[in-house]
Amino acid sequence: MADGSAAALVKTTCPYCGVGCGVSGAVGQAPSSDGRALSVAGDAAHPANLGRLCSKGTALGATVGLQGRLLEPTVNGKAASWADATALVAKRFRDTIARHGPDSVAFYVSGQILTEDYYVANKLMKGFIGSGNIDTNSRLCMASAVAAHKQAFGADLVPGCYEDLDLADLVVFSGHNAAWTHPVLFRRMEAAKARGQKHVVIDPRRTDTAEGADLHLAIAPQSDVRLWNGLLAHLIRIDAVDRDYIAAHVNGFDAVEATLAELDQSPAAVAADCDVALDDLLSFYKLFADNPKTVSLFSMGANQSAQGTAKGLSILNVHLATGRIGKPGSCPFSITGQPNAMGGRETGGMANTLAGHMDFAPADRDRVARFWGAPDTARAPGLKAVDMFEAIHAGKIKAVWVMATNPAVSLPDAGRVREALDRCPFVVVSDCVETDTTAFADVKLPALAWGEKDGTVTNSERRISRQRALFPAPGQARADWRIVADVAKAMGFDGFGWSSQASVFREWARLTAYENTGDETGRVLNLAGLSTLTPETYDQLLPIQWPVRADGRGTPRLFTDGRFQTPDGRARMVPVRPKGPADAMDAAYPLSLNTGRIRDQWHTMTRTGLAPDLCRHAPEPFVEVHPADAEALGVQDGALARVITVRGEAVALAKVTERQRPGGLFMPMHWTDAFAPSGRSNHLIAPNLDPTSGQPEFKHTPARLRPYRETWKGFFLTRDSLALPSGLDLVWRRIPQDACQQHEFAGRGDEVERAALRKGLVKGLVGELVTYEDVATGARRDAWLRDGRLVAVLYITINGRLPPRDWLAELFAESELSQDARSALLFGRPPGAPVDKGPLVCACLKVGAKAVQAAIVAGAASPDAVGAVTGAGTNCGSCRPEIARMIAATAAVPAKEPAHV
Ligand SMILES: Nc1nc2c(c(=O)[nH]1)N[C@H]1C(S)=C(S)[C@@H](COP(=O)(O)OP(=O)(O)OC[C@H]3O[C@@H](n4cnc5c(=O)[nH]c(N)nc54)[C@H](O)[C@@H]3O)O[C@H]1N2
Ligand SMILES: Nc1nc2c(c(=O)[nH]1)N[C@H]1C(S)=C(S)[C@@H](COP(=O)(O)OP(=O)(O)OC[C@H]3O[C@@H](n4cnc5c(=O)[nH]c(N)nc54)[C@H](O)[C@@H]3O)O[C@H]1N2
Ligand code: SF4
Ligand SMILES: [Mo]
């Protein structure tokens, strides 16, 4: 524990990614401004992480404050009691259903709620309201993998476990930037790589995962199916498929082989279509053929595609044909994103499944209805996320309840989603904080956040772990399952009277075991061994992988006996054909816009945005572009650029980099109205869907890029976040700092625009104003001081440069400004040596790019050596690939000062 506190350790699970790391938390004695202090460490006894945490997990303590929290229910913006809010939600849903039928209402939920929450929400919608209209943000995330699993294995089953990542001789990362998105697993694979494991990365971008890999295939966007089909054809050609395994356990091989024959599968033809070097393709084929112990990880580069199901199947086909499944060190491995994406898939959070891996087939449906005592249980799937919001837009769905997700930011075509929410007669949002989506809510319901809630989640390897409360519930916040159960009761439904999350879990576990034979003809998802947990044994539950047998034993690996959950027990290979991206590029939109994640932010930044250290690796929205494209378009590195699609425009900092393919752009998905309204990505994105899974093609939208060409720029540092004056056509971004909020501005107007901004910013500032103006450069520097402390700083320039911000931001921490500091404020230069750290490379130990660069220039030639000098990379290690990249870049070219903008 960082503060050495003697407080009791609580073992819980990290709320971020699907690795599902165990966390030991200790509530500290010294209260923060919210009266909350927490120190965390990795739980060495948790099998998912064995004590490690990444930068996001390490910074959890900085995110538990009560700032921005929803602490009481509100109706139309006014505080309401739980009784009134619950009654209103129940009445509006009941009335809407009475008038327009059960399909006129919907729930949109998320992989960030607990299994217990998911179970209750699904039981209410599908069982008692009697509509299939509950879907989850896993539709944007895992739906294609789910569809592929169901077709190939007969159910949504993830065969492997993390131990397979240690045992594999070859790991293939397909559209998976594990170094940033599943860092703790990546560390584990780096260790295996040091023992000789080979890594192949298939990604149009050279990510940090690709940086240290043995082979990087920077394929043309959306050409994965061609690549994997080509691999299968090659393995058949050289007789490297496992004929015995196929004969014993797999159907469909002949049909797949026949489909392959429709195209020229020669390596030269495949390499040309995927736009990779023939030698690289042949190296991949050889590595694959030579290493039976192969794990193929696939993530959003596979799933988030209009052919996501086909991409998944093309990977599963290769593994089935080679028998590389159900064996130690060998499996296809769809890695999950959210902490409880798996729990949602299990309990039926997706519109096209019922619960417990049972579907709408009459026998399944009747079984679930019997178990619930719910004769009205839905008989057909409901609307999938994108279609659901389209139905809201069209007025067919008239009441929606959004839980633990921020669709106004994260759905594709987000502008239309906002229109839909705006039009919807009744919008309920359960969240912990205000978000871009709560802005549309008629009723806001305050949910418990991580550190307060209590229940279970399932990670990527089917491991069920407990999240446990560290803090008491703040204000009137409540557990999601209880909020839903209370509404269900108020709607007049029986079967929602649980006394605790333990009793919800027990019922859920019993459903998985209900009429489940427990032998090879049964459902694999079976928690029989957990269906008798008492509140005490539930509290003490240790991490365990399902299925959990009646004797309480878990199951690390599935399909070890070659049996699958199909009627004949055989897996199915399914023919899939390559096709291009859904929307083709044209002269007006010649570039392919790809989107995804950055290392230190989580989704819509509602939590990671609270930790200044996590905001400084990539402080503002950016767009990556290849140097050839940038030059042709006049776009400069570090300058603002406009990303334009048929749906809209965003403005972001251009990062000109050879890590990007020519013709491609990449933008992070994270920024919101609260941090950078112009830097949002999703109003640009076409809602093109995979026809089977309904998953959107987030990784490709035709786009063009232009310089922004601001006429002035500036920044404003202040102690509080700012309510920006409305109606100004400016670009602004907010970057949280330790002692202040940094706001960056740029505009294309004249003095009138700057005056309007200044007026808005200055309003309400109290303090002594000191001003410096330089007519030659159009620079103006204002500082406000009160009782010797800095209150705010506003610097604006027309054609000059702006100084580094770090030293100014640090002045906010001082209780009394020195005379030197005061004059430096107006000179616009720090008094002594500049303290600008550059972007934070190591978020855990706060080491900036400049310190790392200095260590490299002084001779540190490996990440270990840089770590020894600076500390960077010695905690979670997530920045080690970046440090390796900086070392390589320094070796290649003389060091260059990064430009200030
Ligand atoms: N730091 C951080 N970690 C996270 C999250 C986060 O927000 N922040 N979110 C979590 C969640 S919910 C998820 S779903 C996971 C996602 O984890 P990842 O899937 O690793 O993340 P992404 O960055 O969305 O996409 C992965 C890669 O797909 C590549 N890609 C794009 N198009 C194609 C293509 O046509 N073919 C191939 N092969 N690749 C392509 C992109 O260039 C990108 O590098 O991360 C989880 N972990
Ligand atoms: N362009 C682009 N868009 C994408 C993606 C992409 O790669 N590119 N990826 C997609 C993927 S894979 C995903 S998973 C989604 C994620 O997108 P979202 O689900 O919209 O993202 P989050 O920011 O995680 O939203 C979670 C919300 O739930 C709240 N919350 C957290 N815990 C709880 C809780 O216990 N109860 C309640 N009631 N609320 C809680 C948080 O405060 C937050 O507002 O984005 C998708 N959108
Ligand atoms: S890898 Fe990081 S974000 Fe993911 S669960 Fe572990 S600590 Fe949390
Ligand atoms: Mo996700």
What's the quick description here?
With 901 residues, this protein is α/β, with parallel strands linked by helices. 31% of the residues lie in helices and 18% in strands.
Q: Can you put this structure into words, describing what you see?
A:
With 901 residues, the protein is an alpha/beta fold. It folds into six domains: 9-63, N-terminal domain of TfIIb; 74-141 and 340-545, Rossmann fold; 143-334, Dimethylsulfoxide Reductase, domain 2, CATH 3.40.228; 591-707, Barwin-like endoglucanases (Beta Barrel), CATH 2.40.40.20; 712-827, no CATH class; 840-892, Arc Repressor Mutant, subunit A (Orthogonal Bundle). Strands 5-4-16-15-14-6-7 form a seven-stranded mixed sheet, with helices on both faces. A six-stranded mixed β-barrel has the order 21-25-22-24-23-26. One ligand MGD binds next to helix 6, helix 14 and strand 21. This is Assimilatory nitrate reductase catalytic subunit.
Provide the fold topology.
Layout: E1 9-13, E2 22-27, E3 38-42, H1 55-58, E4 74-75, E5 78-79, H2 82-100, E6 105-109, H3 115-129, E7 134-136, H4 143-153, H5 162-167, E8 170-174, H6 178-181, H7 183-194, E9 198-202, H8 208-211, E10 215-217, H9 224-237, H10 243-249, E11 250-251, H11 253-260, H12 267-274, H13 278-290, E12 294-298, H14 300-303, H15 308-321, E13 331-334, H16 341-347, H17 362-372, H18 385-393, E14 399-403, H19 407-410, H20 414-423, E15 426-431, E16 443-446, E17 455-458, E18 463-467, H21 480-490, H22 501-513, H23 535-539, E19 544-545, E20 571-572, E21 591-596, E22 622-625, H24 627-633, E23 640-645, E24 648-656, E25 664-668, E26 701-707, E27 712-718, E28 731-736, E29 741-747, H25 751-762, E30 768-774, E31 779-786, E32 789-797, H26 806-811, H27 819-827, E33 840-842, E34 847-848, H28 849-857, H29 863-870, H30 880-892
The structure holds ligand MGD (2 copies), iron/sulfur cluster (SF4) and molybdenum atom.
Iron/sulfur cluster binds next to helix 1 and helix 7.
Organism: Caulobacter rhizosphaerae
Protein name: Assimilatory nitrate reductase catalytic subunit
Family: Belongs to the prokaryotic molybdopterin-containing oxidoreductase family. NasA/NapA/NarB subfamily.
